[in-house]
Amino acid sequence: MTNYLMTTYLTISKNKFFIASMCLILISCKTVGPDYQRTQANLPANYSEDTSTNAANTTQKQWWLQYQDSTLNALVELSLKNNTNIALALARIEEADASMREVGASLYPQVDLGAGASRSKVTELGAFPAFGGAIRNSFNFGLSTAYEIDFWGKVKRNKESAAANALASRAGKDTVELSLIGLVASNYLQLRGLDAQIAVTKDNQVSRKEALSLNQRRLAGGVASSLEVSQAEVQVSNLEAQLTELTRTRALTLHQLAVLTGQLDLTIATGDLRSQPLPPTPPAGLPSALLENRPDIRQAEQNLIAQNAKIGVAKAAMYPSISLTGSLGAESVDLGDILKPGARIWSFGLGLDLPIFDFGRRKSRVEQADARQKQTLAQYQTAIQDAFREVNDALISRRLNAEREEAFKRSQTSAKQALSVAENRYKSGYSAYLEVLDAQRVHNDASLAVVQAKQATFLSTVELFKALGGDWRGDWRGDWKAGLANTTSTKDSAVKAQ
Predict the structure, then answer these.
(1) CATH T-level topology, domain 30-107+152-319+361-497
(2) CATH of region 110-124+133-149+320-354, choose from 3.30.365.10, 2.60.40.10, 2.20.200.10, 1.10.3720.10
(3) Where along the chain do its domains lie?
(4) In this predicted structure, which of 20-24, 255-259, 326-330 has the lowest mean pLDDT?
(5) How far is residue 326's CA from residue 432's CA, in Å, rounded to a whole number?
(6) How far apart are the C-alpha atoms of 153 and 155, rounded to whole Å?
């Protein structure tokens, strides 16, 4: 008896020591895996096209307003409302939000209600014959729960990754919006440029027809030859072909705008790029910190945060997992007795899953997660470098296209003067009509070149807005993370995003 008591005492003592040791180990546990640390990009403080440092560090989102064009504003609003790519981005936000809520729910126990009824027949002649009847009924119902304690931060890291994916989906939508608005603005400015080229061609047509009429009268008076009339007719026909091609290109550009805005029957009245106000020249010394406003950079960083958290998830799988299970209910062979005290049942369990030998399976998963994080880091750094290059390209294109436009304006002025001199010399009989034909061609080319250069200048401003992620003159700095906390439902999120 004494030995039995001693053995029992030692067993209890060992159990207490084991339980106490487990508690100490669990108390000392913490979230495993690396915490995210932002990578410092090795970029110059300013872009290479600028030298001073008097520009703001933020951008304004509604950059297209700088063109002061109500038609463009309406087209942008239509595209944000109707474009299918925006709808796709909104659906991705809804999916990411739902995924984040699913992961967050894992932090809390799951409770299920179960109920059942069965009727069975057991053997009457077997090794274990039934007593009191071979037909048996069984009724039961109860609550059950299962919960894995997140000692190592596996669920926390999963939630961190899901939250980053949700933010990345929002930045992805902003990227789609920026690209879409850029396409709308570029196509609209191209349309206005084609309107200007059509107007220039029509003006030249008027002068060419007047020259043809003059030569026809001179031919009738015996002063000019039929060769000169034929040469004038060639000039008129060439301008007609040029006008036809410009009209066709305008129609194709309009069709592209119709698809972008979701209005397939879109019509836009004729305008003229030459009367369009040009957005202000960016100040010298645009800071490279403006890159943080670009949605694709934000998206790349959130993808990096998500992959960084996945390392912690993989590492947590290498540690023991502890789960709690329990149930409470009733069971009876008679439905009428199911609520009596004697029918009550309950259970409570504690489970421990400790990996011992898996031949490096879990370790390889950690290495895979670490490799994916390195890949995403390289993509993030590449995105920053590409963005820096795009801004520099847009800045130099904006400046040099403006200089090119001024040079073509001077050329147009000289060509107009040369055409006037050639026409006067021909009318006075001092030169052949060939000089007039050459002067007409040069003037036509110079006039179109001025419009095309102006169009290139406008398009370079669009590229600069896109490269910077907005207008450099504003103080807008959207708190795009606030949408995550304020989202009450996927429907509300979609409406707010629109």
Answers:
(1) Outer membrane efflux proteins (OEP) (1.20.1600)
(2) 2.20.200.10
(3) 30-107+152-319+361-497, 110-124+133-149+320-354
(4) 20-24
(5) 107
(6) 6
Pairwise CA distance, residues 349 & 347, whole Å:
7
Q: What is the DSSP string of 373-441?
A: HHHHHHHHHHHHHHHHHHHHHHHHHHHHHHHHHHHHHHHHHHHHHHHHHHHHHHHHTSS-HHHHHHHHH
Question: Are residues 251 and 191 in contact, defined by beta-carbon separation less than 8 angstroms?
Answer: no
55-69, 230-244, 375-389: range with lowest mean pLDDT: 55-69
pTM, 2 dp: 0.74
Task: Give the helix/strand (H/E) hosting 301.
Answer: helix 295-316
Using 50, 70 and 90 to split pLDDT, how confident is the model at 459? very high
Residues 186, 459: contact at Cβ < 8 Å? yes
198-207: pLDDT as tens digits: 999 998 888 8
Residues in the chain: 498
Retrieve residue 108's tokens. 């809390």
Q: What is the DSSP letter of 469?
A: T
- How far apart CA 88 and CA 26 sit, in angstroms, is 45
Q: Using an 8 Å Cβ cutoff, are 247 and 198 in contact?
A: yes
Three-class DSSP category at 353: strand
- In the predicted model, is pLDDT for residue 486 greater than 60? no
Average pLDDT of the chain is 79
In this structure, what DSSP letter does residue 278 have? P
Amino acid residing at 372: R
Q: Which of 456, 68, 449, 478 is nearest to 280 (CA)?
A: 68
Q: Is 211 exposed, middle or buried (0-12, 13-18, 19+ CB in 10 A)?
A: buried
What is the average per-residue pLDDT within 381-398? 88
Determine the Cα–Cα distance for residues 318 and 310; give it in Å rounded to an integer.
Answer: 13
Considering Cα of 44, then 47, then 49, then 54, what sign does the dihedral take?
A: negative
For tokens 């110079």, what's the residue? 446
The amino acid at 166: A
